[in-house]
Amino acid sequence: MDVDPHTAIQYNITELPAGLHGLGRILCSLYLFYLISPEFIALKLKIGLPKGSLQDATFDLFRKAGFSFRVDSSRSYVPTCDDPEIDALLIRPQEIPRYVLQGVLDCGLTGWDWIVDNDAADDLIQVADLVYGKREFHTIKIVLAAPNDSPINEPKDLQGKRIATEYVNLTRRWLAQHGVDADVEFSWGACEVKVPDLADAIVANTETGSSLRAHGLRIVQVILESSTRFVMNKESYQDPWKRAKAENIAMLLQGALNAIGMVGLKMNVCRDDLPKVLDILPALKRPTISNLADENWVALEVILEERAARDLVPQLKRAGATGLVEYPLNKVIY
Asked: Which of 110, 231, 249, 293 has fewest C-beta within 10 Å?
């Protein structure tokens, strides 16, 4: 609640009996102090979300975790969230480590590659490692790539060469580790089109390598593997409320990732058929078994991979299971 102190104390105390004017002012001051006390002020967590290719995947992950974000237009950088305790900003993932480190944001989701490029790995608290991407749910690779017919086959072959990359700091440090002196030039994305005319090689990220191959490039060496990290600055992490809020969000996000490709399966089984049914599920976690009103029957429930369900359901049915129900999962929290 926003309180204007000049308005809040404009109470009509002139009609109080003489001698109570001072008491009235004291009571008004105490009431004002109550209104602006920390317990009365809404708490907020400022979080940076990646704008660009990872934006849709991030919003979808948050949706599965139970948080809904809405962006009014494609040019908006301030999405609204159905959780009033979250203030979000859409920012290029390259910049999120810096803004979190500076305290402009309490926390943010960005790639490990950009954390390393900003030399912020030792200064940020990693709340969670969230392995997801714009298309796939696995890590991406930061690679040195060169044309198929290039003589570049190892780091030393880059001596005196020109390299185009978005990862200028990361690339320079990597070259220094190998004792190589090369010209590293910043590129605003689309590094693949720079070679061979504008650069001898590139350092870029790739999920599958298909874009590199389409441009006649080959991977010379993998420099770094990267995934999305949920990070906080140390000052915000020391705040008990902000830390708990961020850790709760991270738990739900990780639960949403755990649920990808998983389904729940429940069924009723006659006790006489239970050993046969359980034998079909040897590699799965122990299922939940509950008694039914009919003491000769039990209810069985298990979580498994969706691809496994298509093979197991017919087998379970033949083994005596009935009333099989397969259902999707939003979150699985271990």
From this structure: 293
